[in-house]
Design a protein that fits this description.
This protein has 215 residues and is mainly alpha-helical. It has 8 helices and no strands. The relative contact order is 0.19.
Length: 215
């Protein structure tokens, strides 16, 4: 399949897989990304993952993409908790991405031009890249799914920085009540920049939705 990576395509995928999901409450709220180092990925892995998520949901004239929304940091932090079972898969898969990028373009993935990066990702999706366990396509779908989660889930879980993902979707945010005027839907409602865990019923992170990441 000759895919043209776009924000529209990724939004379709987000809707299809129900990307606004939850991880255990021990994965705490949004950090200051500029000051925080990666907790579970080494520097080379983090660089490759950032480059991947930046191409899966790229920024464009309409606004920021997955990288700016903190999807890579969401994945990194969750790899020490809800996604811990996938830590080895990420270590092996990210290394394999760089190996394939070198074979096909002479550079690691993060150093390639966007069009070259897209070609590498298409090789993964088509399952023609080698060196992946169990397969390149499996790793592609794993990272894509977690990128969608990190972009569109509640900011409490470390992604959706500055509510960029919700703004991308046109989701106005949490509302415990909707007025009659808002129900008329004659205008885009003002966005409520609020995490579910800012509500009194979730104080202290008492709510735990469980780990539903058995991809």
């Amino acid at each position: 399949m000759n895919r043209s990576w776009s924000r529209r395509e990724m939004l379709k995928r987000a809707a299809a897989v129900g990307a606004v999901t939850a991880v255990p409450s021990s994965v705490l709220g949004q950090p200051n990304a500029a000051a925080e180092s990666y907790a579970n990925l080494n520097a080379a892995e983090a660089r490759t993952l950032e480059a991947i998520v930046a191409r899966l949901i790229p920024s464009d004239a309409n606004g920021p993409g997955a990288l700016e929304a903190g999807a890579a940091r969401y994945i990194d932090r969750a790899l020490g908790d809800a996604l811990a079972a996938w830590r080895a898969a990420y270590a092996n898969g990210l290394a394999a991405v760089d190996t394939h990028a070198r074979k096909s373009n002479g550079k690691i993935f993060a150093e390639l031009q966007p069009t070259e990066q897209d070609a590498v990702l298409r090789d993964l999706e088509r399952n023609v890249a080698t060196g992946f366990a169990p397969s390149a396509a499996t790793f592609f779908e794993l990272v894509l799914g977690h990128t969608l989660e990190g972009t569109f889930s509640d900011p409490h879980y470390g992604g959706n920085r500055d509510f960029a993902g919700w703004e991308m979707l046109g989701y106005p945010g949490l509302r415990l009540a909707v007025t009659a005027e808002q129900q008329r839907m004659t205008a885009q409602p003002e966005m409520t920049r609020l995490s579910a865990y800012d509500l009194p019923m979730f104080e202290g992170g008492a709510h735990d939705a469980g780990d539903d990441h058995g991809r």
